[in-house]
Design goal:
DUF3013; alpha+beta; two-stranded antiparallel ribbon; DUF3013 family protein; 8 strands; 3 helices
Length: about 160
């Protein structure tokens, strides 16, 4: 049996907490980062022309919205904050406390649930100009404080 690490525990918690939401985990070994990519889908019943951040327009029936959060080792990299829903540091080889990963998965579910509703509102409103998911640091910190069931760490994975 493989030893539990940050990636395996993160995947377990995301599968448990995110339910029907699609996600992927990308481990970038060179930059010592872990990216959690989430996807929302919505019916574009009005067949509105939607433009993404790079200027591509679509009138597809199903809109796919993707965003991601990044876990990073501050001693190895400093990622751009504007490119992600949230960026959260981990402690090098020590990794992250289990309760932090549990809080990330729990709060990410809240963000996606709210975001799915907001996306439907966005598609129904001809006047709306932008849609984005919202990660509130204060709300995450409250969930983090409430999930301190364990101070056990899960280590950053070995190659």
């Amino acid at each position: 049996m493989k030893k539990e690490n940050m990636l395996t525990y993160l995947e377990q918690q995301l599968e448990k907490k995110l339910g029907n939401y699609d996600f992927a985990i990308d481990w970038h070994t060179k930059s010592h980062t872990v990216e959690v990519i989430v996807v929302l889908y919505a019916q574009n019943q009005a067949e509105q022309a939607i433009e993404d951040t790079v200027g591509t327009q679509t009138e597809e029936e199903v809109i796919e919205f993707e965003d991601s959060l990044l876990l990073f080792d501050p001693s190895k990299s400093t990622p751009p904050t504007d490119d992600y829903l949230a960026i959260l540091p981990f402690e090098g080889k020590k990794g992250l406390p289990k309760h932090t990963i549990t809080a990330i998965a729990t709060y990410l579910n809240d963000v996606l649930t709210e975001g799915e509703s907001d996306l439907m509102d966005f598609l129904a409103d001809d006047e709306a100009e932008i849609f984005e998911l919202n990660w509130q640091a204060e709300a995450f910190e409250k969930i983090l404080a409430a999930t301190k069931e364990s101070t056990d760490y899960v280590a950053y994975p070995k190659y």
